[in-house]
Design goal:
The protein has helices at residues 2-10, 55-58, 61-64, 124-136, 143-148, 265-288, 345-366; strands spanning 23-26, 31-34, 40-42, 53-54, 68-75, 82-84, 107-112, 116-117, 155-191, 194-224, 246-247, 257-259, 292-321, 324-331, 337-339. The strands form 2 sheets. Strands 4, 5, 6, 7, 8, 9, 10, 11, 12, 13, 14 and 15 form a 12-stranded mixed β-sheet that branches. A 3-stranded antiparallel β-sheet has the order 1-2-3, with no helix packed on it. It has 7 helices and 15 strands. The termini are far apart. With 367 residues, the protein is an alpha+beta fold. The chain is flat, with a radius of gyration of 28 Å.
């Protein structure tokens, strides 16, 4: 383990063999490239594949040190985000709120090494095009908003930390199976002023006791690993395809910001256990069968538990408008976009005024 950790640290510095400039990851490829002379190198992937770690030893602090390293961190005092700063990272503004970060406040902190990374699939220019197109399509947006969208420097690439958990699930359950059946129910109605008796079919449910056992493999339960006091990543863009995960290599991080997890592994595991309970209930209902089901109790156990610390890509844009901050998010894999936005009071006012004038004209014409 120690040898692997040292190997990762040694990969952190990547300089161009031709001109000495920084090599940065080229989104959508397995290459790191020099922006100055065009030199490219292939990212060598580990033959071991994705790093799955046994969970139980890592729930103990001693175990967590066996696959960890020390990284440089900057803490944003405005929004609370913890950002990993490479030695050659030049931007000193928070990716979430754009507030200045003080390099002298940098500190070192241990983290569990990522076991996998989902590399960015397109570059900042493309994300800015997606962002600009979305902004231009917004109704009643202030003109300043559209001008802000034209500045590529407002868009930053960020790797978000997540936990994933795997386990063998076994559960015994008790519940009820519901089977639908229909009965004819008489009713009266009025037809041409006369009272007529008719029947209609009503659905009923026949309940029978059920119990049994379910088991199976729970794969890659995804749990968010960082708290954002502000600017939470929208659920709308949290739709990554984890089948595209690559074995972790620091070269994928070059040129991007990496957020450190702030939700401990233990808390992430508790959340994943709750998700596993939901899965057990779903499996129990499927096992019960019938038309509908009730699950009264589930006794669940998990074994062979493993986990990964993974990094997932997102582009973020933030700017100030009338003293208020707005954030926009683009999924770095799929290109889906979401964000909050201001509205122009005057555009809405004149639009409403225009509608009122149209209504008045129509009323006058109708007379």
């Amino acid at each position: 383990m120690e040898e692997e950790a040292n190997k990762v640290v040694s990969e952190r510095k990547k300089s161009c063999v031709n001109c000495g400039a920084e090599l940065k990851y080229k989104p959508g490829t397995t290459q790191i490239t020099c922006e100055y002379c065009g030199h490219e190198e292939t990212i060598v992937q580990h033959q071991d594949g994705l790093q799955e770690l046994d969970l139980i030893p890592y729930l103990d602090e001693m175990g967590s040190q066996s696959h960890s390293e020390e990284i440089m961190m900057l803490h944003c005092k405005n929004c609370g985000a913890n950002q990993h700063i490479e030695e050659n990272y030049k931007s000193l503004h928070c990716v979430y709120c754009t507030m200045p970060l003080i390099i002298e406040d940098a500190y070192k902190e241990d983290w569990i090494l990522p076991g996998a990374v989902l590399p960015f699939q397109f570059d900042q220019k493309k994300s800015h095009q997606i962002f600009s197109k979305w902004v231009k399509g917004l109704w009643f947006a202030p003109n300043n908003l559209k001008k802000a969208a034209l500045d590529p420097q407002k868009t930053k690439g960020l790797y978000l930390p997540y936990w994933t958990f795997d386990a063998q699930l076994y559960a015994s359950y008790t519940g009820q199976r519901g089977d639908y059946y229909y009965v004819s129910v008489p009713y009266t109605t009025k037809v041409n002023g006369k009272t007529v008796q008719r029947t209609r079919q009503e659905r009923r449910t026949r309940w029978t006791p059920a119990r049994g056992n379910v088991n199976g493999f729970v794969d890659d339960t995804l749990i968010k690993a960082s708290h954002q006091r502000k600017n939470t990543i929208p659920q709308k863009i949290s739709n990554w395809n984890l089948n595209a995960l690559e074995a972790f290599n620091t070269s994928f991080l070059s040129g991007f910001v990496t957020e450190k997890y702030t939700i401990p592994l233990k808390d992430g595991h508790l959340s994943s256990t709750k998700e596993a309970e939901k899965i057990a209930i779903t499996w129990a209902k499927r096992d019960i069968g019938g038309d509908t089901q009730r699950v009264n109790s589930v006794d669940m156990s998990l074994s062979e538990e493993t986990f990964k610390h993974i990094l997932l890509p997102v582009y973020i844009s933030a700017y100030q408008y009338n003293g208020k901050k707005y954030n926009f998010f683009v999924n770095g894999q799929t290109g889906s976009i979401s964000g909050n936005r201001p509205y122009s009071f005057w555009k809405i006012f004149f639009f409403v005024l225009f509608i009122i004038m149209i209504i008045l004209v129509l009323v006058m014409l109708s007379k």
